[in-house]
Amino acid sequence: MNVPKIDTKLTAKDFATDQDVRWCPGCGDYAILKAVQRTMPEIGVPKENMVFISGIGCAARFPYYMNTYGFHTIHGRAPAFATGLKLANPELDVWVVSGDGDALSIGGNHLLHILRRNVNLQFLLFNNEIYGLTKGQYSPTSRLGTRTPSTPQGSVDRPTNPCAFALGTGARFVGRSYDVGAKHLPEVLKRAHAHQGTGFVEILQNCIVYNDGVFGHITEKQVAGEAQLHVENGEPLIYGKDKDKGIRLNPKTLTLESVTLGRDGITEDDLLVHDETNPVLATLLAQMEPPHMPVAMGVLYDSPAPTYEAAVTGQVQAAMEKKPNATINELLHSGHTWTV
Amino acid sequence: MNVPKIDTKLTAKDFATDQDVRWCPGCGDYAILKAVQRTMPEIGVPKENMVFISGIGCAARFPYYMNTYGFHTIHGRAPAFATGLKLANPELDVWVVSGDGDALSIGGNHLLHILRRNVNLQFLLFNNEIYGLTKGQYSPTSRLGTRTPSTPQGSVDRPTNPCAFALGTGARFVGRSYDVGAKHLPEVLKRAHAHQGTGFVEILQNCIVYNDGVFGHITEKQVAGEAQLHVENGEPLIYGKDKDKGIRLNPKTLTLESVTLGRDGITEDDLLVHDETNPVLATLLAQMEPPHMPVAMGVLYDSPAPTYEAAVTGQVQAAMEKKPNATINELLHSGHTWTV
Amino acid sequence: MSTPLLKEDQSRPSAPREERDSVVVRFAGDSGDGMQLTGSQFSQATALAGNDLATFPDFPAEIRAPVGTTYGVSAFQINFGATSIETSGDAPDVLVALNPAALAVNIKRLRKGGLVLLDSGSFTERNIRQAGFSQDPRQDNSLGGYQVLEIDISQRVLEVARPLGLSQKDALRCKNMWVLGLVYWMYDREPQQTLDWLAAKFAKVPEVAEANIAALKAGHAYGETMELSGEMRGYRVPAREVKPGAYRLITGAQALAWGLVAGCKLAELRMTFCSYPITPSSPLLHILSGLKQYGVVTFQAEDEIAAACAAIGASYAGSMGITASSGPGLALKTEAIGLAFGAELPLVVVDTQRGGPSTGLPTKTEQSDLYLAVWGRNADAPLPVIASHGPGDCFEAAIEAVRLAAKYMTPVMLLSDGYIANAAEPWLIPDMNDIAPFPVTFHTDPEDFSPFRRDQDTLARNWAIPGTPGLEHRIGGIERDYDTGHISYEPANHQKMTDVRAAKVNGIANDIPEQSFTEGGPGAALTVVGWGSTYGPIRQAVAALRAEGEDVAHLHVRHIWPLPRNLGSLLEGTGRVLVPEMNSGQFATLLRSQYLVPAESLSKVTGQPFTIAELKDAIRARLGGGA
Amino acid sequence: MSTPLLKEDQSRPSAPREERDSVVVRFAGDSGDGMQLTGSQFSQATALAGNDLATFPDFPAEIRAPVGTTYGVSAFQINFGATSIETSGDAPDVLVALNPAALAVNIKRLRKGGLVLLDSGSFTERNIRQAGFSQDPRQDNSLGGYQVLEIDISQRVLEVARPLGLSQKDALRCKNMWVLGLVYWMYDREPQQTLDWLAAKFAKVPEVAEANIAALKAGHAYGETMELSGEMRGYRVPAREVKPGAYRLITGAQALAWGLVAGCKLAELRMTFCSYPITPSSPLLHILSGLKQYGVVTFQAEDEIAAACAAIGASYAGSMGITASSGPGLALKTEAIGLAFGAELPLVVVDTQRGGPSTGLPTKTEQSDLYLAVWGRNADAPLPVIASHGPGDCFEAAIEAVRLAAKYMTPVMLLSDGYIANAAEPWLIPDMNDIAPFPVTFHTDPEDFSPFRRDQDTLARNWAIPGTPGLEHRIGGIERDYDTGHISYEPANHQKMTDVRAAKVNGIANDIPEQSFTEGGPGAALTVVGWGSTYGPIRQAVAALRAEGEDVAHLHVRHIWPLPRNLGSLLEGTGRVLVPEMNSGQFATLLRSQYLVPAESLSKVTGQPFTIAELKDAIRARLGGGA
Ligand SMILES: Cc1ncc(C[n+]2csc(CCOP(=O)(O)OP(=O)(O)O)c2C)c(N)n1
Ligand SMILES: Cc1ncc(C[n+]2csc(CCOP(=O)(O)OP(=O)(O)O)c2C)c(N)n1
Ligand code: SF4
Ligand code: SF4
Ligand SMILES: [Mg+2]
Ligand SMILES: [Mg+2]
């Protein structure tokens, strides 16, 4: 979104509403809310130009807690509402907030199409790998074997990787962060916002009630260094709490490998350098998974393309300029008429 | 699908129905129908175990012309009907026939989920890059700038690549062929059928009325040699009517390049060798496009994984074996009861 | 009616033409024969000749079925006359059949004694068989009772067109113009505008233009010659006296699309039209996609749900969100419409009804989505429902839908059908300056703001749109507090909100015209109550019977919900009530439930409009045997 | 009723207990306080004590709202007695409030003079404020008119549990068992089974088991002590005389799930249950997912549309396809249901209704999807609609739905609601051997086969499933030829098919029980007509008024469509007709439309069931002022 930056002195507090936040105590959504509220003032868009759109789910309650415009719609359809909103007023700064069920189960088709069209907005997918609001059934991102009320013997369908899915649809910005990434998340949000087109951000989120700790092996302080790779454009792919590990390409198998710097004579030069504009690299990064690989965090892909609403309204604008004072009476009299 | 092969002496004719085929004269669907009818006897599944399921569209009329079981359902939902069918009777050999609108516009979400779940059936996507049945509006695969009744100034949304989309969702078999590929198409169909899980096949199809010639630069006899690369597992990626061109990887940019054998000292050894089990290679191949690259035809990806219905019915079977004679009366008396 | 273009005085000095009050012609041929073009050219010429008219394009379901098949037959029917024409005609007087299949499909419609005009050149054995005839229908008694005029049109067209350099195939494609020329001669229509149109249409392929023009002229000349030889006769259908003004032909789809544009203009709102293609709704999307110069934004969504949601999103942003579909698509939109109802956002939902259930008969007409429109939502969610009654009327109905949606902050259902959408009629072009605007004022005052504060009169809530400083607020589908609009699970509040939403919609009854009689008045022995596209045939039938002295009246209802506030009293004071509908009695159910009147359903579910004759018979039967 | 576990003779030799005919207790506390568990334990003990009972779990909408908030309050109400209990009780006699928020939310429900039992330990300033009280309600007059019993339960629990090694937080989680012990004492219930249950539940954390057991015993002992000191009294609610047999407690969701399994067994069909989670429908998916040993296949689809389509696909394959949802989800299924109707495939669609419109009040109950069930499809698509009237009745209703779907090759709507689904009642366990099976026979004979050949009696078409040699055929949503089943656009065929589909469904009226009166008989001054979960309160209200001598009768309708064939005549012979519904009058509309009876709607849309008292008042008002 490129709404003109305005010098405001808003603070995080200005973005809080007077409504009690009703998530379960300890829910990862609180941390995300804080991060978003802290990020908004830095973005410099007037509050009244911001709109938060959501579907249904715990995550989807988000708009009630943001003192901007907000629309809590129906399950899975937030991208479609957002598209209409942007077509009607491209100047608005729109943020879609969705859960893994909302975005990838009932709403997968709308997500595909908003990404394909590249509507200029931010899409935040709170991935807790579970249906929180309906009390804990498995979701399209739940791992194989997840036991839930609807899968008492364990789930049998392979999960979808949200970032890989987004890239497969042709998304032009794909980022990943996590609920307790108090510093990391705002940076990714700002990048998504700066991107012209749909800024898709997966946020790993802990559901303390129905899926507690499912990302513990990635986000817990003790393991984060080894389990996460924070990508930076133009920088080699290095990770590890001692920054001693890296990622290199095996060009034969077209796969990524984790290597230790210094071991077997491996140096930084052997590592892949992150290129945000490379979709294949982004796909490979998106698919890295523990235990053998770290999880890639940050901006995996950013390659702007024309936005949908700009193109649509551009055609309308051009037509209006070509016929500046078209009246309805003219329309009614167009083509064959006769007078009695 | 692995229905036991039975020695039948069926011919293509046995698979034709007594209904007049109602596509427009010259429609690519005729050629596909012929190819499918010719392939069926070779597959060796008894006719009565075959079911063709479709949504709505010109392509979706297909079941009426196959003398098997058939269900012409509603727009976009064929994968969901097929999933229920397979859950109820995993022995059936199910073929879904869909169009680019049916599969990727209204039905994108069901396609995502059938691929993710890996339901054991064949999914044929007749891609004519247009809505045929509703008289020629653009579709999610129409190229940028396509002029149709709903886009008189040209379409502005970037098309989705069906094979790349399928790979992004986690599909385990992705093939591509074309309507007039009288020899090529049956081979790909047989491979899809042999695959355990969802065999996704994109078939480029000419709509002579609303999008005539849109694949001419790929499928016309004169250009096919240069415009198509027929991939074969384990073979180097060579194409050209003189078999003088090949594909190599640029490991720096992670992109594919077309090279000429013999020029600049390039030999077959420099070329990539097709590996059907490599998803990254499949994605790169799926995305090759004219004019600079040939279109990849054949089995781009084939990497079997457990099928959904086998896992589901496996759990049911196991539970039934554990409690072999569970009666409803027992169920009704389970837990706390008391007698008056 | 007299138009400057009507050149009666220029008609050729040959035998005086017999006068006809009205005539029904049906053009039928293969999908590739161009029957729709032929029909619309004839309609234009007929309109210019000052006749009233109504058309009925009868497309095949297939895009372009194999040549010569019955399911590939395309037909176009036109009823035109010197009097008020409100239906496309019960039975054709003239059937043009360009191949055996066209004859097979349409012959049963022809009135006894009518004229069938055949292209004998197309009666090959193969074509005859493909049409389903066991033998040549011209040889057995199949055509007994009709006048048959066999002309080898194919041959004549080849003779005219081949010398101009056309291939056999291209030459034969001029058959329709040859026939048009002949029919122009028969009814004394002026061919010039068609000649001009051909020249323009085929400007880039002059030999094709020339061939078509030559074919048309040849057909015309053939008529003259045959008349001289006494084998054919020409007719005169005098112009109709009508209100002076500028006229045009208009289809329902066109009028509806333009009405939406006009309505938004009157409301001073931008329009965001979101739709997913479906027969017979798609023409709205096509027409509106070509009106960008009026600021119309169109969005071909990925499906009907997305279309409805995008339209609601657009309304939330302060535009008029409009979505359009047909039965199966409308079914998909129901959940989203419920949200627009609950969040109280304006939305116009256009349903161009078609034959059902399920996929049903996509290219045939029906009125069977009334239940879905009125009652098809989860929970208590009453909406205004408006039905247009004919092509031109769609314009006004669409304006009314936009007006109510904006004024009452509510989704509005606007019903059309496959017949109305495709049929054309002459239309007295309204002057926008004569239509009172109803500009929307967005709420902008932060003082004491709540998004759910209501207007005392309309009970509509505030419309405060994103971008307005100080009015930041959240809305959604969970029940909202009556005062603040925040989420509320309070039992009493839910009752209050349910009540006020219903009261708001019911209140619209005070903002719409009272019901009046189309024909007759209160207290008739039988009152025929109709809605939607049955208007024409019912009115004609009732008028005819009244002229015969029958005690019958006609009420035509445009506002299906809320019903006009005086409708109940009009019905209570009446005798029997008969409700003809192209469904299984849906409006009859509604009337019975609201007024406890013993409304009797007259149901027709064939995908075809009522004929005047069958309505007259039904009415007569109920009046005790007829006059 | 006397059960082997009822140990009246073992009651302590202290003061004789006062006898009560029925009692309503409401347990209320924070989401984390375990009120639902407490309530269901009390229900079990009460059932074992031989009382009739009905429960009403009243969940918060939030999963686990912040501690101490009003929207985090969870409550469980139970009505139990020595007589027939059919509602969860108008107003509690006893309210247990474990924190100020629970008091704030629930106090208004308590009957005047009722007992409120408070945990004074939770009345901290912060909690009081968070509950929305401006001052301590115990200090001002807020609780005037009630008996208030303040006990520092928190403190007492800490004293019991801390020594066992529990943290303060864990210790406080035993509050519910302390209260349960006290209430057990008050109503002389046997605690043993709860003690056993606690031991089993916390087998892996013995200190927690011990602490809970100790808390329960301490609460029980507290009662005894207080009684001795005269500050509390115990009651006796005698057992009810009931039909002998094996009983259990059952919720509506459980009975419905089991009924579906039983129905499929009786039909000799595999069940394929396809659903997408939604409140309050999800428990069906959960229960059935645990019944794999009965061959039940469950499928959590990607959305409601896929769920409906998968179920239809399963039926096509020869299984019984079942899909379940609530309002918003049902709205999404309408297009697919239309296909099942058109293709004439069996399908059971369960709708557990909730508050609407749109997302509405997901955790509250309503009956407002009747319009959607009966009329919510594009085009003419009538379906059988069955409504269950209470928890146990769901079992029979589900069997009936499966029977009709299989026998008539049609989708069937089965309506339940949020109240029925979650409420529990004692249920006389039926013996499957007493229920007549209705096995399905698939068609297998290729001789002269057509998929649309119909049974002469039922008008149901053949069910021929894939895998059957020689019966290969194609079906779909486009209109089908009456004889062959092939696609047909023929006008007359469409009429014939529309008629036969309607006739088939209407014919079901001959295959369902005739309507009978629940209370009273024909010709009453006022007949109350109900459906669904209003059964209990209406029956109680009408029975009570009849006992008072009022001329009122009760008709309860299970088959909403087609209606019982004699219902019309029963209604015509009656005085006023009153239709209480938890919606804006939907069934009243249906009755009016069908029978032209002036059925009057008594509407309640608060998300709460009717109380007996409000029904009695409404009936009395219509009878002219009451006895
Ligand atoms: C049409 C419809 N179907 C189903 C539901 C029930 N429902 C609400 S939220 C939800 C899924 C929530 O999961 P997710 O999107 O992952 O969000 P979370 O609660 O985990 O944040 C479901 C199934 C609904 N409200 N509407
Ligand atoms: C619910 C619904 N929406 C829309 C339609 C109209 N419709 C039928 S087919 C179709 C698209 C066809 O395109 P495609 O899937 O590409 O098939 P093709 O005709 O090109 O083979 C549409 C929009 C419908 N029948 N049902
Ligand atoms: S259920 Fe899970 S996701 Fe939802 S609010 Fe509670 S902790 Fe958060
Ligand atoms: S419209 Fe196109 S896709 Fe459809 S039948 Fe005709 S040629 Fe084929
Ligand atoms: Mg989730
Ligand atoms: Mg297509």
Could you characterize the architecture of this molecule?
- The complex is a heterotetramer, with two copies of chain A (340 residues) and two copies of chain C (627 residues).
- With 340 residues, chain A is α/β, with parallel strands linked by helices.
- Chain A has eleven helices and twelve strands.
- An eight-stranded mixed β-sheet of chain A has the order 2-1-3-4-6-5-11-7, sandwiched between helices. In chain A, strands 8-9-10 form a three-stranded antiparallel β-sheet.
- In chain A, helix 1 (28-43) packs across helix 6, helix 2 runs parallel beside helix 4 and helix 5 runs antiparallel to helix 9 (279-286).
- Chain C is of the alpha/beta class and 627 residues long.
- In chain C, strand 6, helix 3 and strand 7 form a beta-alpha-beta unit.
- The radius of gyration of chain C is 27 Å and the shape is globular.
- Chains C and D meet through helix 12, helix 13, helix 16 and helix 19 of C and helix 12, helix 13, helix 16 and helix 19 of D.
- Strand 2 of chain B pairs parallel with strand 17 of chain D, so a sheet runs across the interface.
- Bound molecules: thiamine diphosphate (2 copies), iron/sulfur cluster (SF4) (2 copies) and magnesium ion (2 copies).
- One thiamine diphosphate sits between chains B (56-59, 75, 99-102, 126, 128, 130-134, 139) and C (276-278, 304, 328-329, 332, 359).
